# Entry
Amino acid sequence: MAVQDSEFGRVLRAWRNRAAPEEYGLPVAPGRRAHGLRRPELARLAGVSPDYIAQLEQGRATAPSAHVLGALARTLRLSRDERRHLFRLAGLSVTAESPAGGTLPDAATRVITRLPASPAAVYDVRWNPIAWNPLWTAVMGDPQKRPQRERNMAWRYFTGLPTRVVRGEEDRRRYEETIAADLRATSARYPRDPGLARLIADLLAASPRFREVWETTTVASYERESKVVAHPELGDLHLDCDILTTQQHDVRIVMYTAAPGSDTDRALGELTAAARRAPSGPAEDAS
# Structure
C-alpha cells in the first residue's frame, strides 16, 4: 500500500526538524540555519541515502519497508504513538516490524547526555548503537562514519574490523563467548525478529570463531567488562564498562568510567574539556 504522501512527508519533516543535532553528537556551527537534523544527517544515522529521505518527504517514494520505518523511528526517537502513526501512514501495521526494533526511551537519552564526563551510548538488543554522547565519540570514534552493518558491535568484532579496544587472549575468549551467549539469549526472546536472525546467520557464515562459540549453546548476558582503549592521541585508557538494560524498551545503556585520580580519569577530563570548547566532529573507529 502506498504512503499517504502529503501527511507522511509532513510528519517526517516535522520530526526531523525537532531533533536537536547536539543530542546526536553532531557539530553545531555558528550560523547554522537548520534547527533540526539535516537530511544527510538523518540519512547517515538511519542507514539510508539522503535522496531516499528527500523522496519520502516529497511523496516520491511510495512503499518504505518496515525496516526503514523502524530505523527512522529509532533515529528520530519517536514515542510509541508516533511510531504507530508513522507505520499507519505507510500502510503497514507496527507488528510488521520486528519487536526487537525497540524505541529509544527519553530516560536513556537523558542518562547519556547528563553524563558529560563518562563515555556513554545506547545500543539495541542486536548491539547496534542508536545514541551516544560527545565523549563516546571522542573516546571510541563516531559510529556515523561507518555503514549501518559495520556499526554493529558483534559484527565489527567477529569480522575483524578495526577497533580501539585492546584485549589479551583470555579477555578475547571471554568476550567472544559472552557476546555469542548474549545473542543466543536475545534470539530466544525475539524468535521472529528478521534483523536479529539475519545478523546471526551472517555471523555464522562470515566467522569460524563465531560458529565455534555459537555451537556451545551457552546463554548469558553481556553486563560488564574492563577494557583498554588505545586512543590515537592520549594512549591507553583503562576503563570499566558497565551495561544497564531497560526493562520496558529492552535497550542497553553502555557506560565507561575510570578509577578516580587515575591517568585515564585525567585523560577523560581533557577530552571532556575539549568537547566543551568545540563541537564534536567525526572520528575514526567505533567499537
The longest strand covers residues 235-245. The two ends are 38 Å apart (CA to CA). Residues 108 and 148 are 21 Å apart (CA to CA).
